[in-house]
Amino acid sequence: MDEVAGAIADPVRRAILTMLRDSRLPAGEIADRFQISRPAVSRHLRVLRESGLVRDELVGRRRFYVLAPERFAELVEWLTPFVQPSGLEHRLDALETEVYRTRRERRTRGPAARAQENTA
Amino acid sequence: MDEVAGAIADPVRRAILTMLRDSRLPAGEIADRFQISRPAVSRHLRVLRESGLVRDELVGRRRFYVLAPERFAELVEWLTPFVQPSGLEHRLDALETEVYRTRRERRTRGPAARAQENTA
DNA sequence: CGGAAGCGTAACCTACAAGTTACGCTTTCG
DNA sequence: CGAAAGCGTAACTTGTAGGTTACGCTTCCG
């Protein structure tokens, strides 16, 4: 829990997580999107890995990073009691949005399409 | 947003927030519950204040701290897209729990009771 | 087989977060 | 009015997070 909160506290790591929301990415491609050096990004990736927020998949000489959604829920559940009752509406809206997004993506790219992406 | 995430990353500050969930507290009483020195706690309180997660209310020579729920929602909304679809159930459960908790508290202590507490 | 591609790690530097002690400003009250 | 209560702030110390460069290990491919 402490690790998760700490991991999310850094803006670079939050940006990485946002990138991975769209698709899995190899370490090099992630590093290219930042101004900081590749080793610096590599360590951010390690922090994310150790916090359990991402997994890595080795493919040849590349290492792909993938979101590991499980741990996110912890933090959300910790935060829930603090959200003001009037904020519940917004949260339900967000939930709804998310449900639609998930459905749309499942239509767009089925499980089969997943094997095709990121093979450049 | 960065401030909020950073504020929550610290275990002491999370503990303070949890305390304030039950009732508002004066700075001294908060400090007493930790092993670290009072000035240290005082700075944690400042961080929380500047991040907008808490407000302070001056009463005589005491300074009470109160939760300011608004900012919490930001973080929750940022996290929402990452929570796995199967996690939605858990989140809805948490929501339900929270709703009941809120209702129970509103029954137990009405708005009138609020003026009575923490007047020791 | 040898060089390049792709990453991680080690060693080092620097800035900052978080702790401590000392101090000063209001407010309360005998 | 003066002392104590209640907090915040300043100044200082120290561990660690995050950046850089240098290096080494696999994997791919001409």
TrEMBL record, chains A, B:
Residues 1-87 form the HTH arsR-type domain. GO terms for molecular function: DNA binding; DNA-binding transcription factor activity. The keyword Transcription applies. The keyword Transit peptide does not apply. Transmembrane segments: none annotated. Gene3D superfamilies: Winged helix-like DNA-binding domain superfamily/Winged helix DNA-binding domain (1.10.10.10). Keywords: DNA-binding, Transcription, Transcription regulation. InterPro entries: ArsR-like_HTH, HTH_ArsR_DNA-bd_dom, HTH_MetalResp_TranReg, WH-like_DNA-bd_sf, WH_DNA-bd_sf. This is DNA-binding transcriptional ArsR family regulator. It comes from Nonomuraea dietziae.
